[in-house]
Amino acid sequence: MTFESDIKNIFENGTWYHSVKYKDIKSKGTFDYTDLVYKLNFPDMKNKSILDVGCSDGFFSKFFLEELNADEVTGLDYNEYDGSVSFEVLKSNENDYAKKYKDQNDFEKLKDSYLNLSLENSNKFNFLKKVFELNMQYKSGSIYDLSEVHSHDITFCGSLLEHLRDPVTAIEQLYFTTNEFCIIDISNSLKRKYNFFNKPLIKYTGAGGNFFHHSKEAISLMMEAVGFKKVASLKSYKIKIEKYDYKIPHDILIGYK
Ligand SMILES: C[S@@+](CC[C@H](N)C(=O)[O-])C[C@H]1O[C@@H](n2cnc3c(N)ncnc32)[C@H](O)[C@@H]1O
Questions:
Q1: Reduced to 3 DSSP states, what percent helix, strand and coil does the chain have, rounded to the nearest 5?
Q2: Domain spans of the chain?
Q3: Distance between CA 27 and CA 40 in Å, rounded?
């Protein structure tokens, strides 16, 4: 196989979280943001450094660099790309998640193509970096401890908070690594904002890997509590899970240092 056919093989037959376009191909992601991303009201990022926490395949990192003029992106993720579970889960759920994650790792299936491209695992962030020659660096780590990560002009955290036991610590860590502003995209955001006592709502999902659903008011309060100022809403939207005819509500917030 040629280099080009290896690239196409991974786009066409790989397991993707996001749909990503390459020439006449679009990878079959769980979510297709290819058109929607332009409508999310992200600000221009000209000459800025970005930290994309929970970057997954780097779809948003690539967008920030190519479309919003960012200077460089550091993508950080908990995923070790060795087939192990890349979310914190309750012990009681570990086995179920372990199976699910093993099935998602396409490295064995596409090994020849990855190796031909000098990629040692199925990390799609590094794959996109190579294919599109992007100024982005992958870092393995957890949002709970960003002490080893230097601060960036802009921090971004998309669709991660609902998977965390402790979103407050996570948001505080984002605060410490932000120079100018932080953008948080909340997945499965709650429509109902307040409880009976007029306090912002959070709902425990009862599961051990997708812990809470948050209202944007609750995340906004957490952002303000750790020190962010002028927290504002950028966008409310819904996105379809490609496999099912079901749309997930999201809210994007921005908070300034
Ligand atoms: C649902 S995906 C969201 C991907 C992308 N940010 C987006 O907005 O579409 C969440 C990502 O966060 C990563 N992740 C899970 N727990 C994490 C943690 N504690 N620290 C950093 N990344 C984590 C997962 O491996 C996964 O790639």
A1: 30, 30, 40
A2: 4-256
A3: 21
CATH topology of domain 4-256: Rossmann fold (3.40.50)
Amino acid type, 162 = E
- The span from the CA of 85 to the CA of 31, in Å, is 20
Residue having the nearest C-alpha atom to atom 16 of ligand 1: 87
pLDDT at residue 2, as a whole number: 62
Q: For the segment 48-97, what is each residue's pLDDT rounded down to a tens digit?
A: 999 999 999 999 999 999 999 999 999 999 998 887 777 788 888 788 77
Alpha carbons within 13 A on the beta-carbon side of 95:
1
Say if pTM beats, i.e. exceeds, 0.90: yes
Nearest to 231 by CA among 199, 254, 257: 254
Query: Which of the pair, 197 or 24, is modelled with greater confidence?
Result: 24
What's the 165 CA to ligand 1 centre distance in angstroms? 13
